[in-house]
Amino acid sequence: MFLNNQPFRHRESYKQMLSSTGSLSNLFSESDSPYLVSRNVENAFCEALGADNLGRSDCSADASKDNIGIGIKTFLHGNGKTLQKIAEFNKDSDLYRGKSPKELILTIANLRNERIKFTKRTYNIDSMVYHCVTRKPNKIMIFEESMDLIQAESIKILKVSNNGNTISFIDGLHEYSFNITKSTLYKRFITEKCIEEINVKILEKPYQELAKLFGFEIIPNQTKPIIANPYENLEFIILPLFSDRGSKRHVPEKSGLNQWNASGRTRNPNEIYIPIPRWIHREYHLFFPPRDKPFQLRLPDKTILSAKVCQDNSKALMSNPNKSLGEWLLRQVMNLKEKELLTYDVLEKLNIDSVIVHKHDDHNYSIDFCEMGSYDEFENRNP
């Protein structure tokens, strides 16, 4: 596509830039996947490969060289088939609000195509490619693919989320998803054919290395890195606090977050579980430990619970003792009285409908709440 046609020494310089930046990951993250900032990758790409930097221009390319426009994407490798943002249409919302899903997507497709054509005309570009830099434990990988126009005549709607906020579609070449609330278009990137694989040795104590380089002294109690965003590079899943079974989105009255109200044996009023959809186990089968194997779950207030996945098909995230999770979620957070049902109306008032679970390692996880629409977006980002 592009990178393989560049001089060898330029490619090696680019790889060294990415590797050296990734080695400093512990300045910002606790993950073993290298931490890279998208702007840094764009700058390294342009400096090492002699490309024009278009990152601050209002166009569909981040760089250009030899009449080729390059859209540079930086993201966690994940399962190798993730949806990534490719365009925003906040200023164009009046053009598609209130339209049917098919009409809306046709409008978005035409807007996206016109932006690509505009970029090609403006910068004398003949072709466009995506240059994807993905990150996995101790590695940086590079993939490239053509940046195609959306084939409007071949668009097929795959799915409209229950709340109508997200529309997934294909055009015969690629799969896309459009989030109406965020006015954002996503494309699914299939990262299978790697053109470069870069091993990264993450420095355990990067501040000490910087001290040697710049000649300053580190006082012992200042050696702990300041983490800008400790979750930036961590693998995560999003779990729904609701059910879509039946004709209306709701919180089940006798299961899930209202498990305490189930028929049969006498139950503790705080007994709950967070449901784990079956597709999450399929797509993220190594995310959780095996069924009934305990792990540590850190709450937003830093309380640590013992937790596990259990029940048939590992469909439930529960605490041990079981009441601990309910005491936190139902009593402390939702402020519900004992034996008061949690309803979807309560979730709507709080603007939350799901939880995000981050994996720090095989024994330590953390959990927090997500705003309305987060689970739908997460589901639509996965096949």
Q: How does this model look, in words?
A:
The protein is of the alpha+beta class and 383 residues long. The protein has 2 domains: 197 residues, no CATH class; 147 residues, At1g16640 B3 domain (Beta Barrel), CATH 2.40.330. Helices cover 24% and strands 28% of the residues. The chain is built from 8 helices and 18 strands. The strands form 3 sheets. It has a 7-stranded mixed β-sheet with strand order 12-17-18-14-15-16-13. A hairpin with a 2-residue loop joins strand 5 and strand 6. Helix 1 packs antiparallel against helix 2. It is globular.
Secondary structure topology:
Elements: H1 8-23, H2 38-49, E1 52-53, E2 63-65, E3 68-76, E4 81-88, H3 101-122, E5 127-136, E6 139-146, E7 156-160, E8 166-170, E9 175-179, E10 184-190, E11 196-199, H4 206-214, E12 235-240, E13 274-275, H5 278-283, E14 295-298, E15 304-310, E16 316-319, H6 323-333, H7 344-350, E17 352-361, E18 364-371, H8 374-381
Parallel strand pairs: 3-5, 14-18
Antiparallel strand pairs: 1-2, 2-3, 4-10, 5-6, 6-11, 7-8, 8-9, 9-10, 12-17, 13-16, 14-15, 15-16, 17-18
Helix pairs in contact: 1-2
**How much is the average pLDDT?**
91
Distance between the termini: 26 Å
Instruction: Briefly note the structural class of the backbone.
Output: alpha+beta
Order of neighbouring strands in the sheet with most strands: 12-17-18-14-15-16-13
Shape: globular
| Low-pLDDT sequence parts | none
Helix and strand string, N-terminal first? HHEEEEHEEEEEEEHEEHEEEHHEEH
Hey, roughly how much beta strand do the residues contain?
Answer: 25-35%
Strands, total number:
18
